[in-house]
Amino acid sequence: MSLVSIVAVTPAQFRRRIDELIDIHLSAMDYPASYKDQRRTLWLSNIHHPDFRCHLALVHPDDARPDPSDPQQPCAGVCFSFRGSSDTWWNQQVTRGLHEAGHSRRQIESVLKDYAELSEIHVNPRVQQLGIGRGLLTVHMKSISQQHVMLSTPEVPGEANGAWRLYRSLGFQDVLRNFYFPADARPFAILSKAL
Fold first, then answer.
1. Cα 189 to Cα 51: distance, rounded to the nearest angstrom
2. Domains of the chain, earliest start first
3. Model pLDDT, residue 27
């Protein structure tokens, strides 16, 4: 019998599992495999941001401790964040979106002050709807030292999917809706939660 445990991982452990983690991301987001190299470069660069934190959902035998260094313990989900700053691409895009939506410079600075950018949270589609995403995000948010956490998620009609239900149940609020990143044809929502 197997268990799923949420564990914090070091940048070195994250790096060793990078291909497995990106495969989960591509599958969960329905992105083509051709994105893999670009995502690998981006994700590895994220390790160097201040306050980088990562948690994995590891599947392990119930008589063994979860061990991120053990390749026999597959990953079912990944969540990572880092301190948001004006020199990141995501911050620059959200700043643009808020400006285009009519927010003043002061309002934008207030929204983008002392936050953690939740860059990624993904669960393998084969094991979604089992509470793994909730466990990952709940544990992960407890490790964040900033005043609030922000994320982007694809828009869906009526917010009718597991990701939206999770974010709303944990208290995430709208910052910006129907926003388009240059690299994706889908509209996204930008959400925030005070910590």
1. 24
2. 2-194 (3.40.630.30)
3. 95
